[in-house]
Amino acid sequence: MIKSTDFGKDFLWGVATAAAQIEGTSDMYGKGPSIWDTFAAKSGKIKKGHKINVTCDFYHRFREDIALVKVLGFKTFRFSIAWSRILPFGKGEVNPEGIRFYHNVIDECLEHGIVPYITLYHWDLPQALEDEGGWTSFSINAAFNTFVSICAIEYGDKVKNWIVINEPFGYTSLGYMLGVHAPGKTGLSNFFSAVHHTALAQAEGGKILRAEINNANIGTTFSCSEILAYTQSDNDILAAKRVDCLMNRLFIEPTLGLGFPSADWDVLEKFQIEYGTWRHIDRYKFDFDFIGLQNYFPLTVKYNAFIPVIQAWEVKAKSRKKPHTAMGWEINADSFYNIIKQFSSYPDVKNIMITENGAAYHDKVTDGKVNDAERIEYFQLYLSALLKAKNEGMPITGYMAWTLMDNFEWAEGFNARFGLVHTDFKTQERLIKNSGYWWQKFLKS
Ligand code: BGC
C-alpha cells in the first residue's frame, strides 16, 4: 500500500480551489462583476441554470473551510484571488474590503500552519475589462500587470508561493474559441489573440512577482493530457501531433523561450506571422521556479477532414469502453505518468508540482456518509503512477488534489462533484467524504 512518506519528507501535499468556484458573494462587499458572473446569468450557459452568486459561500465560511484543510491533514491550501474583488473595474479604484478578505484568508492559513499558494488568475476576468476586449485586447497586459503588482505588494510579505495563471489553454480555448465558457467568444482570431496576450501576461506576471517579493517561489500551471492516436495510420498519428501542439505545447514552449510549436502544426505559422510572435520571444519567456501540471484525462484522437483547422476528432472513452469518471473523462494512470514524463523532458523544467488532479463522481449521501470508493481508487492509481515518475527521477515536488469541496464546476454548474468534502448547496453543510478520510489516513502514513 502506497504511503505519503514514500514521496519523501519535503514533498508538499495540498488541496486546490478557485475563487469563482467557491466564494459566492459575487456582487457583495465591493466586488465588481466578473465574466463568469455575466456568463452564468445568461440563460442556457450553465447546466440546469445553476447560479454562481452563492456557490460554497466560502467568503463567509473560510474559517471553517480552512479548518477542514487542517483536519484532512494537507500542508498547503491553494486558492485564487478574484481580480474584480481587488479592482472592481479591473483597474483604477481598489476595493479595501477585497484586500482585507484575502489578508484574512492568508492569516487563517498561517495560524493553522498551512502554507498558502495563491493563484492570480483563475478565469474570472473583471467584466469591465472584457468590455474592452478582454484577453483579445492588448490593453489587458497593462491591467494584469497592475493587478499583479498590487497583490504582490499587499501580500508578498506573508505569501511566498505564487501561481500566475491557471491553465491558459483552458480559458483561451473554452472561453475565446469554443464559446462554452466565459466570456463565450468564438473563432480562431479571438483564440489566437487571447493566446498571445495570455502568454505575455504569464511571463510578465512572473517578472513582477520576482521583482516585488523576496524569496518568492513562482510558478504557473498548465493543463496537460497525453494524446494518443486512435490507430497507427499516418493520418491519425499526425492528428495526434497537432492536438498535442494545441493542448500541451502551446503555452509551455513560449514560456521556456522556444516560441510556439509551429514546426509541428502549420496553422501556428500563420498565427506567428500575424502576431509577429518571434519579436516577442523574450517577452513570453520567464524562468519559473516550478511548473504546475494539471491532469485529468488522456485524449484519443483520430483524423477527421471535416473538423476545421485541427482536423482531428476525439474518440470518447465511453465509446471505446474505457473506465471513465462522471465527466466522461478516461481514467488512465499510465497516461498521467506519460504526460509528466513528456513535460519533464524539457531541459529547462526544473521543478514540477501537480497543482490539480482529481475526479468527479455521482456521489450520494447515505446515512450521513458519502462512500466514494471509486474516487479513493482513482487517487490510489494516480498517486502510484506519480510515485513511479518521482522514483525514476522526474523532478516532482508536490501534489494538490482537486478539490477541497464540491463547488461550482463552471458550465457544469453543481452537477459535477469533485470534492473531498461534500457540499449541500441548500444548507451549505459540509460532510467529509470517505475519500477525505482516506486522504487523512494517507497523509499520516
Ligand atoms: C480547472 C478547475 C476545474 C477542474 C475540473 C481545471 O481545468 O482549473 O477550475 O474545476 O479542471 O474541471
Rounded mean pLDDT score: 97
State the total count of DSSP E strands.
Answer: 15
CATH class: Alpha Beta
List the uncertain runs.
none
Shape, principal axes of CA atoms: globular
CATH second-level architecture: Alpha-Beta Barrel
Strand fraction band? Answer: 15-25%
Bound molecules: beta-D-glucopyranose
How many angstroms separate the termini? 10 Å
Number of helices: 15
Give the biggest sheet.
8 strands, parallel, barrel
CATH topology-level fold name: TIM Barrel
Number of domains: 1
SSE arrangement, N to C: EHHHEHHEHHEHHEEHHHEEEHEEEHEEEH
| CA gyration radius, whole angstroms | 21 Å
Read across the widest sheet, the strand sequence of neighbours is: 1-2-3-4-5-7-10-13
Q: What's the name of the CATH homologous superfamily?
A: Glycosidases
Give your account of this protein's structure.
This protein is an alpha/beta fold and 445 residues long. It has one domain (4-443): Glycosidases (TIM Barrel), CATH 3.20.20. Helix content is 38%, strand content 16%. The chain has 15 helices and 15 strands. It has helices at 19-22, 35-41, 58-72, 83-86, 96-111, 127-130, 140-155, 168-176, 188-212, 234-249, 252-255, 267-275, 333-344, 373-391, 434-444; strands spanning 12-16, 76-80, 115-121, 161-165, 217-224, 227-229, 290-295, 299-303, 312-314, 352-356, 365-366, 369-370, 396-402, 421-423, 430-432. The strands form four sheets. The protein has an eight-stranded parallel barrel, surrounded by five helices. Strands 6-8-9 form a three-stranded mixed sheet, covered by helices on one side. Strands 11-12 form a two-stranded antiparallel ribbon. A hairpin with a 2-residue loop joins strand 11 (365-366) and strand 12 (369-370). Helix 7 (140-155) packs parallel to helix 9. The longest helix is centred in the middle third of the chain and has 25 residues, at 188-212. The model has no long low-confidence stretch (mean pLDDT 97). Beta-D-glucopyranose binds next to loops. Keywords: Carbohydrate metabolism, Cellulose degradation, Glycosidase, Hydrolase, Polysaccharide degradation. Its EC number is 3.2.1.21. It comes from Pedobacter mendelii. Belongs to the glycosyl hydrolase 1 family. It is an enzyme of class 3 (hydrolase).
